[in-house]
Amino acid sequence: MTGLDERPEVLSDADRGWLRVRTYLRDNRYSLAVQASRELYPGTPRVAGTPLLADPAWLPAEPLPLDSIALELDTGEAPDLPPAPEPRYSELIGRLAAPAVFENRPTYRLISGRLDTADPILVFGLGHYFDAVDTGESVAHEFAAIQLGEQAEAVQRCAIGDPVDPRRRPTNVAISALTIRRDIRTGDARFLVHWRDPAKVGHAGGLFQVIPVGVFQQATDHPDSVRNDFSLWRCLQREYAEELLGEAETPAVAGPIDYAAWSAAASLDEERRRGTLRVYCLGMGVDPLTLATDLLVVTVVDDPVFDRLFAELVSGNAEGELTSSDDGCVGHPFTAAEVERLAYGEPMQAAGAALLALAWEHREALLAG
């Protein structure tokens, strides 16, 4: 694999032009996202004053317990969408600028969803990771090329149209989780933030983000994993094991994961049953630059449980590094000033900024215990 600074020795003029735009995109993701939200989608609702776009039907009035969201899986044929331009953007990344982690794994593809009703539901089909790369990263590249004067019109973005209509493009969903440690004695809280290393990731490199974050997908290629892993919580369990504890995202098994027998997952399950770990959904939104779609989740953990579950908390992982505030403690204080600074004053991924702002808005319900 190659990175932006480790390229093939022989490059065509087209390759050099592509790399020039890709480098500009990498170095200016945050400002480009803010610009795209303002200029391209002025009529689309934004979440909590951040660049994140949303359908109003994706924003519940109150935090939803994660298990209150019904999931429906439609394994029929995918809708007939316009073909991605050739060469595919994923092919160009793989050949010219592949990050450390870049695999075309199977995913659950969003078809529709409503989170603002008494019976919230998300409907998914089947897809692959590169399906979204070939559209989302491609339209981000297109927008960057326009800013550099190397392209005149946003042809592909215009063909997609409404950014919050998942029927217009292959739509993978990342589950973005804000992890909050709640002190049961004082009521004070702290939250975790991750810096995404552009050398390691193909999406949102160079930005801050909540942690963990993972694409909603089956864990293995085994056919039974399609149903076994069709759970928002199980996806989160795998991401906690990988991103906070440094474990493999999936245990070494030949077939589907037995979550009850996997100690990392079983421990999370037990605390969730006890109510010392609580998981809520605050909505869903779309990044205006890349069209990446994120389910916005908050996990609140009582401090004794947090300290036990994450006693081996890692400072770095395969995607980047944990950050902290100036007080020397793990994470950041969950205060108005720190939320304001990160959500509106730092180069934070749109989904993370919106999630922080919504969590502060709903802080009394989330921290009630």
Mean pLDDT: 92
How many strand segments?
Answer: 14
- What's the alpha carbon Rg, rounded to whole Å? 20 Å
Strand content: 15-25%
Q: Provide the helix percentage.
A: 25-40%
Q: Please identify the top-level CATH class of the domain at 13-68 and 92-99 and 173-366.
A: Alpha Beta
Low-confidence stretches: 1-6
Cα shape = globular
Largest sheet: 7 strands, mixed
Structural classification: alpha+beta
Q: Number of helical runs?
A: 12
Query: CATH superfamily of the domain at 13-68 and 92-99 and 173-366, called what?
Result: Nucleoside Triphosphate Pyrophosphohydrolase
Distance between the termini: 46 Å
Q: Which CATH architecture of the domain at 13-68 and 92-99 and 173-366 would you pick?
A: Alpha-Beta Complex
The secondary-structure element order is: HHEEHEEHHEEEEEHHHEEHEEEHHH
Give structural notes:
The protein has a domain at 13-68 and 92-99 and 173-366: Nucleoside Triphosphate Pyrophosphohydrolase (Alpha-Beta Complex), CATH 3.90.79.10. Mean pLDDT is 92; it is low at 1-6. It has helices spanning 13-27, 29-40, 89-96, 129-147, 155-160, 225-228, 232-244, 263-274, 303-309, 336-345, 350-361, 363-366, and strands spanning 64-65, 70-73, 106-114, 121-128, 173-182, 189-191, 193-196, 208-210, 213-215, 277-286, 293-302, 316-317, 320-322, 332-333. By secondary structure, the protein is of the alpha+beta class. It has twelve helices and 14 strands. The strands form three sheets. Strands 1, 5, 6, 9, 10, 11 and 14 form a seven-stranded mixed β-sheet that branches.
